[in-house]
Amino acid sequence: MKADPAAQARLLDLQELDTRLQRLDHRLRSLPEIAEAARLKERADALDAELITAQTKASDVARHQRKAESDVDQVRSRAERDVKRMESGTITNAKELQNLQSEIESLGRRQAELEEVVLEVMEQAEAAESEVDRLTREREAAVAEAAEVTARRDTAAAEIQWDRTRLNQDRERVAADIPEALLTFYDKLRSQYDGLAASPLRYGRCNGCKLALSTVELNEIRAAAADEIVRCENCRRILVRTEESGLKEPAAE
């Protein structure tokens, strides 16, 4: 492949822009806010699950409390009716009065037991509601923090995208100075060699792989026509000859 030396030199400008674009892409992928936002979302999701479990438990305890209180009311109402019957004087049979008195005492004991259950369930309900309140506060804090981090992430990403847009515009201008065949070849090499396709030859060394060329390789490059595309024998990237290439023969004495 052949190309005007000016077009070859323009490859270095294009490579510089592509390298900067590659760095911006890496910065975008590596924004610390990305991992932080994901962590906070995971935390908020976990708190959501815990909150649902706590709310379910609180609802079950509240239902148990209502049932226990209803049982107490039923026993109390029955005991009150029995007391009224006994105090009304309508029951004169001694055996029946004795049975009614026994039932009233039994209901009293049952009411006391149920009231103990109510107290226990009330404590459980208080603890369950407290847990719901705690998880609600934690979840709200996690959601708020996640929103703040996400906003920072989006702002940083927008700034990077703005830089990418500007660099892409510069790239289009530079790419317009390069023949289509050479540009296609350059892009193909970029995909093969981690984004680095063209490198200057500086002082006998490829700036791409950082390896020094042998004397034979340097002599072959010296002998090549100025418009011939040369490549590093080590990394196979395009070598762009510059004033710093170290190709000039030393002056004869």
Number of helices: 5
Mean pLDDT across the residues is 89
Q: Determine the fraction of residues in helical runs and give it as a percent range.
A: over 70%
CATH class of the largest domain: Mainly Alpha
Q: Output the CATH topology of the largest domain.
A: Helix Hairpins
Oligomer: single chain
The largest beta-sheet arranges its strands as 2-1-4-3
Say how many strands there are. Answer: 4
InterPro entries: CT398_CC_hairpin, Oxidative_Scav/Glycosyltrans, Zf-RING_7
Organism: Nocardiopsis alba
Keywords: Coiled coil
Protein name: C4-type zinc ribbon domain-containing protein
Keywords:
single chain, mainly alpha, Helix Hairpins, 4-stranded mixed sheet, 74% helix, C4-type zinc ribbon domain-containing protein
